[in-house]
């Protein structure tokens, strides 16, 4: 029998388990893990008035995934939507329904808060994530641009 997946908000005592997964997430995207970034991101998440929240996926006694998200105002509608910033599942827990369970819980949160949509991005070479996202959402017609700001 497969282990149940519990999806719950992060709490202070989850710091070490979250940080281990977040380091792996950073490495996956080619970013050198940094204690300063971990501290800042954790601060944003754990502060009740902070800009983002985090759900954890737990199987047994192991944290196996996270979804970090935030509310965003949308000027064209005067409404709010949810922005999923980061979704990560530990390699050994992939294909066990963890990402789907995180997204389902995020759907519930969006409905409860009156958000009119959920939005997220992924790297254009992340085919694994795109296979999941193609099943649960649709690609946007918007093109994302970035402009680095230099000192």
UniProtKB/TrEMBL annotation:
InterPro entries: Acyl_CoA_acyltransferase, Bact_Acetyltransf, GNAT_dom. SUPFAM superfamilies: Acyl-CoA N-acyltransferases (Nat). The keyword Aminoacyl-tRNA synthetase does not apply. Keywords: Acyltransferase, Transferase. Residues 5-151 form the N-acetyltransferase domain. Pfam families: Acetyltransf_1. This is N-acetyltransferase domain-containing protein. It comes from Thalassospira xiamenensis.
């Amino acid at each position: 029998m497969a282990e149940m997946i519990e999806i719950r908000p992060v709490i202070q005592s989850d710091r070490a388990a979250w940080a281990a997964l977040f380091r792996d997430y950073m490495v996956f995207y080619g970013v050198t893990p940094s204690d300063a970034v971990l501290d800042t991101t954790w601060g944003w998440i754990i502060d009740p008035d902070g800009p983002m929240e985090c759900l954890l996926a737990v199987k047994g006694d192991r944290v196996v995934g996270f979804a970090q998200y935030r509310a965003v105002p949308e000027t064209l509608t005067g409404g709010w939507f949810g922005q999923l910033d980061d979704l990560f599942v530990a390699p050994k827990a992939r294909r066990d329904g963890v990402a789907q369970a995180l997204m389902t819980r995020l759907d519930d949160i969006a409905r409860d808060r009156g958000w009119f949509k959920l939005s997220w991005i992924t790297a254009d070479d992340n085919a694994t994530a795109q296979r999941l996202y193609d099943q649960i959402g649709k690609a946007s017609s918007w093109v994302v641009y970035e402009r680095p700001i230099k000192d």
